[in-house]
Design brief:
430 residues, alpha+beta, BirA Bifunctional Protein, domain 2, Rossmann fold, 2 domains, eight-stranded mixed beta sheet, elongated, binds histidyl-adenosine monophosphate
Length: 430
């Protein structure tokens, strides 16, 4: 026997029980995005490799070691499976001159690809919901983006999520801090690990983000970016905080929050939980005022965030949110040729009225079909034998108590509606 094939490591099948939870989540997400005026955009999964190098930065983990890049065998083009959505979204906005029509509130949803070491909450194919506000300069949009996340956590009933906030200032302020940081780290060069040594001159800010326990004291005492922020950056940061305070949203300023992508400036934030182990960041983002210009557009400020859907759903389940499996309104049981044809008519007729109907397929005795009807959870089985088919009727068999009765096919929709309405009433519904 040949060996069975498996999915690529770190890329998961989402099976029906779980996929139903995803769909329920996706429905609530759409309403939430609409409530804030965000409109959908869909970009390709594959982009030219230089897009990510320019946007995310050459000296980042993503570009250095996590991208699925390949050469198009047909034309030699360098392509990459998107590791994130911001670069593509900005590329699309520039390409289609979307900002000519004014600022844009956009969102996207879909798979992203990073060649990371897979573990719980970290996958090679994962899904993001990304929100990008293009053409907005003020701190108001930064604050709104953050508040909008808080509302979603609330809607979903997510527990133990906290907000970490920082400001990365302007590029000039970062340059001044960078010089000071390099000078400081040069003084302690022999203490740096391999990553630190390598990044000392290319991306010293990322050294502050190190997880290496031996470097914590060194990093703690390093020059802090916040001390290099000028008046405008400080005022912007203060305004964001003011809105959050007014809204009663607690946050912690984390001076070591630098993010793993190079396009950020000023406000950056992460939503973190302790409930998911090591991969506790469920959502992250910030302002990226230079990116539109950097990718060839007319300069335009922007800010946004993306959440990891797998992580949000894991936390949602932790917090007790599980989708109910789908239960059909009726299950159609039948035997004999004439009955089979009638069963199709009955099922289609009910679906045309908006009911969800499982039509038994695959034959079998009435007894075994009734077992399937029971297992489906449907509140009623519609039984069609030769007698019923000849009479243009259906045996209406409530599964949770109530009398079995024969009903004309034309009256079936109203009878079923009545049964479902009564069942709803029993559950305390309408
Ligand atoms: P990011 O921090 O790289 O930012 O990713 C955002 C979120 O995606 C993370 O907080 C995490 O929840 C999820 N995520 C990232 N990598 C993985 C993985 N390997 N497995 C599972 N989940 C993962 C960005 O991607 C930016 N584009 C966010 C942004 C949008 N900034 C401005 N606009």
């Amino acid at each position: 026997m040949s060996q069975t094939l498996q999915a690529v490591r770190g890329m998961n099948d989402i099976l029906p029980d779980e996929a139903e939870t995803w769909e329920q989540f996706e429905e609530s997400i759409r309403d939430w995005l609409k409530a804030y005026g965000y409109r959908p955009i869909r970009m390709p999964l594959v982009e030219p490799t230089p897009l990510f190098k320019r946007a995310i930065g050459e000296v980042t983990d993503i570009v250095e070691k996590e991208m699925y890049s390949f050469e198009d065998a047909l034309n030699g083009e360098h392509l990459t499976l998107r590791p994130e959505g911001t670069a593509s979204c900005v590329r699309a906005a520039i390409q289609h001159k979307m900002l000519h029509a004014g600022p844009q509130r956009l969102y996207y949803y879909g798979p992203m690809y990073r060649h990371e070491r897979p573990q719980k909450g970290r996958y090679r194919q994962f899904h993001q919901i990304g929100v990008e506000a293009l053409g907005f300069a003020g701190p108001d949009i930064d604050a709104e983006l953050i508040l909008m996340c808080a509302r979603l956590w609330d809607d979903l009933g997510l527990e133990d999520v906290r907000l970490e906030l920082n400001s990365l200032g302007s590029s000039e302020e970062r340059a001044a801090h960078r010089s000071a940081l390099i000078a400081y780290l040069e003084g302690h060069k022999e203490q740096l690990d391999e990553d630190g040594q390598r990044r000392l001159y290319t991306n010293p800010l990322r050294i502050l983000d190190t997880k290496n326990p031996n470097l914590q004291a060194l990093v703690e005492a390093a020059p802090k970016l916040i001390d290099y922020l000028g008046e405008e950056s400080l005022a912007h940061f203060e305004s964001v905080q003011q809105v959050l305070r007014d809204a009663g949203l607690p946050f912690r300023i984390n001076p070591r929050l630098v993010r793993g992508l190079d396009y950020y400036n000023r406000t950056v934030f992460e939503w973190v939980t302790d409930r998911l182990g090591a991969q506790g960041t469920i959502c992250a983002g910030g302002r990226y005022d230079g990116l539109v210009e950097q990718l060839g557009g007319k300069p335009a400020p922007a800010a946004g965030f993306a959440m990891g859907v797998e992580r949000i759903l894991a936390l949602w389940q932790e917090s007790g949110g599980v989708a109910e499996g789908h239960v059909p309104d009726a299950y159609v049981v039948h035997q004999g040729d004439a009955a089979a044809r009638a069963a199709f008519r009955v099922a289609e007729g009910l679906r045309a009225h908006g009911f969800s109907v499982l039509l038994h397929c695959g034959g079998g005795s009435f007894k075994s079909q009734m077992k399937k009807a029971d297992a489906s959870g449907a509140p009623v089985a519609l039984v069609i034998g030769e007698d019923e088919a000849a009479a243009g009727e259906v045996s209406f068999k409530p599964m949770r108590g109530g009398d079995q009765r024969r009903i004309g096919m034309d009256d079936l929709a109203s009878e079923l509606a009545e049964l479902l309405f009564a069942a709803d009433g029993d559950d305390g519904g309408v």
